[in-house]
Amino acid sequence: MTDTEAAADVPTPGRPQPSGPPASRWSALVARVRRPGTPLGRHLRGLVIGAVIVIALLELVSPFRVSQITTLSYYVVACAGLTLLTGINGQISLGHGALMAVGGYTTALLLPAGLPFLVAILTGAVAAGIVGIIVGAAAAKLHGPYLAGATLALAVGLPGLALAFADTLGGEQGLTVDVPRPPAWFADAHFFLFGSDPSTTQYLAYIGALVAGLVLFLLANLHTSRYGRVWRAVRDDEVAAELAGLRLGRLRVLAFVVSAVCAGLAGGVLALATRLVAPSGFTIVLSLSLIAAVVIGGLGSLTGAVLGSAVIVFLPPLVTGLGARAGLSDVQAAELAPLTYGLVLVLVMIFAADGAAGLVRRLGGRLRRRQGPGTGPPRSGHDAAQESDDAARRTS
Amino acid sequence: MTSAVHQPPAAGGPGAAPAFAVEDVTVRFGGLTALDAVSLELGAREVHGVIGPNGAGKTTLLNVCCGFQRPDSGTLSRAGRPLAALAPHQLVDLGIARTLQGVGLFRGLTALENVMVGADRHRRAGFLAALLGLPRAEADRRALAERARSALAEVGAADVADRLPAALPYPVRKRVALARALVAEPEILFLDEPAGGLGSDDIDELAGLIRRLAERATVVLVEHHMDLVMAVCDRITVLDFGRVIAVGDPAAVQDDPAVAAAYLGEESARGDEGGTA
After folding, report:
1. How far B156 CA lies from chain A's nearest CA (Å)?
2. Domains of chain B as residue ranges with CATH
3. Which chain B residues are Cβ-neighbours of A214 within 8 angstroms?
4. For position B224, what pLDDT does the model report?
5. pTM of the full predicted structure?
6. Residue B207 in this model has a pLDDT that exceeds 60
7. Is residue A378 in a domain?
8. ipTM topping 0.90
9. Distance between CA atoms of B267 and A77, rounded to whole angstroms?
10. In Å, how far are A105, B5, B142, B187, B233 from B218, measured between CA atoms?
């Protein structure tokens, strides 16, 4: 220990000197956590911070809020996948609700067979991924309105399968899902940490948050990797992308499959959270909500997917509650939600076309500029695009 | 010198197959014959100009060379190997790069990222590494960024690495686009009107760059700017109405009466295009 410190005090030419006093090892660690050197480090830090916030919320808020967080978690999973497809790769999908149905129904069918729920959810994701290969292969050849139309047909048509195969899929009534009870190790750990037994609602919320956290982490890795870069290249200029040796078709199908797997996972979590999968749960409205969340949040941004999902999940009950308190009848108050929803979408389009994530970024940039120079230039453009070469930015 | 059409290739050494060859290629659009039995042979490390009046078929020829346009008849070959059904995405692996008329940068990517996409063939990490954020993917990213950075430096655009294309002046965008083609380390580089919209200083710099590139690659220059073409090309192919009307070194082509005839009456129009845009 003293040896290494002594060595560190002697200036050696080939080696960078620690900038602070001997105690700087701790501050170096702090600095690394505050400013991780690699995208992976940044994403891991985000994962940890997110986990702390979510755990705190799940332990502190009311059971109703906890179940809302579960809802939020599957919206986040689906929207994160959709923003990758639509924002990063430029393919629109109005059919992601149907892909969620594939995941949800697969999960609901496998759970009674005695499979662990994680296996069931993952199988549902794989099933949605397989559907994604088929739809994606068709989508790779379609553009703009044609793709929108094809995926819209998927959203309308696929839930109909549940009616056609009513014996297995439960028809209009759907399938009920047996919710897994918290296992003993989870209950013990929870009791040890928080001094209370976890409710099933809490357990489900933890599952949803875990899935959402992992999906966000993995997709953030993809965003900053070669794939994020070439997906955006394919989106921006097909001819130039092809000349760079990129295989447009394959990359588009891959984006669709990744996105479909996310939708499948989201469907599985939805099945657990709502304890029911039925055609009425996977209507075109769900598909449109997802695309609305992605647009409100800011196309192509994972942060935006989270913010947009939050708007979709929390805004309607908030507005309905406000309406009821203002003396409107229940029916009238319920009508407020879609109205506000449309209004928010229009306002976002007019005042912040890059969505909530863009708004946050611009405000952040303004704040940093006000603090004075030396804090680095404000980031412009799409955040995923900008984040991907952070290391390079710092050296310049 | 009109007989120059069927001369053997000037470069590549005796007996060696040309680095890239187009033989008897014909392309028809409906009743219009865009290319009529056109042949083009490129030697190693040669700067080859392709010129001709507007509508002569220069861009069509380029599109055939890059697999965007399937010829109705005729063959392509790379270093003696025939290329049957050439698709654009295969070019990179054949050591061929092309810049686009205009700019063609990815607008949502920074200059550096644009060039990194050009360097994509040098990647090593696969999908799983990218998904999990393995060190392999990070090492890959750094390596590609390093290549991209030096390509940007080569074209004199190192200082704009972190800017989006929309924030760059037109000539700088063209430099970035050139860097994106260079970074793939092509053996044959097709430049589609690289001087279009550039001022005379930029064009002088471009001429120097093209000569430097010729030390390691074959450069094909499709260009209207005659001073540039005459200054940098080893050989020139002149197209008119889809036919090759002359092939030879700049001096020979300039003295060719057929070339003069083809350009007669275009003199004033060319003067406009050659200037700054």
Report:
1. 16
2. 1-95+219-277 (3.40.50.300), 96-185 (3.40.50.300)
3. none
4. 87
5. 0.83
6. yes
7. no
8. no
9. 63
10. 58, 20, 29, 6, 11
